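TA notes, week 10

Several of you asked for a full example with nothing omitted. So below is the full record: structure tokens for the whole chain, then the designed sequence directly under it. When grading your own attempts, check the secondary structure regions first.
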């Protein structure tokens, strides 16, 4: 979802996506990134002071003209140096360099800076690959809080039965070595449904009170990089976590079986004008930092139930999350994203990026919902209307493509577990093909812009085994011929 109702005098003309008033993201060309600029986590944890210059040339002169002084830090830490406080900007490897994550910086500038104009000016410099404001995405939650769950009810089981979830879990129970990253609003660590399902996670949220517009009220903790991904206010991430990994105390069990979740809190809790319930609010830099860290922590699948609408970006703006998507895919991670909730044919990022499995929502009848965002990039649909899942306390009914995506992420987790059990590496491309080709047709036939049909988790697993058997049979035949 995109925030459009707030005035942004600091943004570029025509900008309709909310962006932070004191932050600009810049990615430099390969070979142009200075080595001495510290990583954001070290700056925020006071292990290093931010740099005051980026290139000593054209970039710094433009920043001086528009903003005066600036504080500069790398958005990401090097995987090889994560445990080296104060030196996490050192030893980026080849994939980190070529994907761009090693070359992406955040410039913190004074309030009143025209960050939109600054980004547009920086984008004209030959050594700059991309420059943009630090956009903010928001994840809404349609839910009934404090629901008295009945795990045996037909309504509770209907979404799981639609995707043949019980058959899939009977066929492949999942593997605790398969890790699913959940980049969202955080989780309730002590919820009974999460018992034994969570690995250590992280909190990358850093939205100071002076970094948002008047009218936005931030709730709870929103300033620290730490190892506590707890959500106290929103529940969006908790609903996704329950769909993926709930143990089945008072709801159907999560569809990823014994797979483990890495909870990454990248969405702060916030109250928006004219909205009664809190939402998850996340800056692009914080979301990207969480995605990269989930990759570096070993996630094989990452669920991304957030997005920025393309039509709300300034025409000159780069597409959000491009560097982290490239990095994750290069590391062999399966990325699953919600398609969006506006009911039109629209591009949302990261769902639109090549290699990402974009998921729409279907209703109880196996038809795409009216709110599910369409597009040629949408791969398939999954249940996304009145789905029973865990809440911050108790249970909730949730609706939206945000909650269709975790069904597919969970199915991808089962595919990864099955492939590992049979000693076969699973690529994101293969996972996407298995999921889309095995999907059930929509109840009333083909629907344009909603993918190949409705997720069938059991059929995808059977198709994986058939593929492995075929490849091994062909390999054996070739060996016999020799």
């Amino acid at each position: 979802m995109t925030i459009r109702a707030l005035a942004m005098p600091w943004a570029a003309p025509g900008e309709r996506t909310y962006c932070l008033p004191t932050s600009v993201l810049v990615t430099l060309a390969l070979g142009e990134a200075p080595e001495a600029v510290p990583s954001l986590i070290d700056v925020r944890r006071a292990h290093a002071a931010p740099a005051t210059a980026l290139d000593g040339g054209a970039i710094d002169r433009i920043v001086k003209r528009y903003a005066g002084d600036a504080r500069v830090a790398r958005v990401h830490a090097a995987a090889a140096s994560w445990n080296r406080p104060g030196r996490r900007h050192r030893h980026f490897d080849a994939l980190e360099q070529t994907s761009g994550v090693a070359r992406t910086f955040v410039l913190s500038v004074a309030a009143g800076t025209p960050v939109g104009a600054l980004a547009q000016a920086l984008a004209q410099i030959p050594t700059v690959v991309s420059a943009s404001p630090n956009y903010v995405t928001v994840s809404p939650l349609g839910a009934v809080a404090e629901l008295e769950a009945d795990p045996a009810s037909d309504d509770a089981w209907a979404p799981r039965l639609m995707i043949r979830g019980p058959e899939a879990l009977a066929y492949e129970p999942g593997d605790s070595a398969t890790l699913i990253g959940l980049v969202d609003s955080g989780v309730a660590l002590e919820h009974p449904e999460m018992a034994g399902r969570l690995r250590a996670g992280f909190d990358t949220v850093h939205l100071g009170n002076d970094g948002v517009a008047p009218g936005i009220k931030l709730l709870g903790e929103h300033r620290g990089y730490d190892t506590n991904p707890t959500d106290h206010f929103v529940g969006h991430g908790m609903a996704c976590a329950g769909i993926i990994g709930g143990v089945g105390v008072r709801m159907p069990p999560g569809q990823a079986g014994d797979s483990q979740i890495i909870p990454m809190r990248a969405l702060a809790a916030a109250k928006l004008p004219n909205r009664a319930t809190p939402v998850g609010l996340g800056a692009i830099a914080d979301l990207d930092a969480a995605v990269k860290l989930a990759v570096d922590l070993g996630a094989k699948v990452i669920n991304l139930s957030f997005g920025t609408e393309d039509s709300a970006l300034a025409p000159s703006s780069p597409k959000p999350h491009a560097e982290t998507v490239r990095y994750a895919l290069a590391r062999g991670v399966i990325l699953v994203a919600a398609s969006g909730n506006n009911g039109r044919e629209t591009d949302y990022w990261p769902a639109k990026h090549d290699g990402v499995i974009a998921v729409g929502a279907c209703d109880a009848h196996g038809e795409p919902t009216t709110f599910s965002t369409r597009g040629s990039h949408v791969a398939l649909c999954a249940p996304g209307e009145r789905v029973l899942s865990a809440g911050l306390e108790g249970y909730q009914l949730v609706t939206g493509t945000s909650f269709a995506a975790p069904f597919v992420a969970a199915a991808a987790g089962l595919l990864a577990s099955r492939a590992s059990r049979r000693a076969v590496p699973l690529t994101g491309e293969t996972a996407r093909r298995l999921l889309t080709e095995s999907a059930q047709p929509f109840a009333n036939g083909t629907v344009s812009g909603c993918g190949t049909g409705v997720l069938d988790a059991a059929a995808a697993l059977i198709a994986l085994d058939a593929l492995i058997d075929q490849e091994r049979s062909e390999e054996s035949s070739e060996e016999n011929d020799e």
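The mean pLDDT is 93. Use that as a sanity check on your answer.
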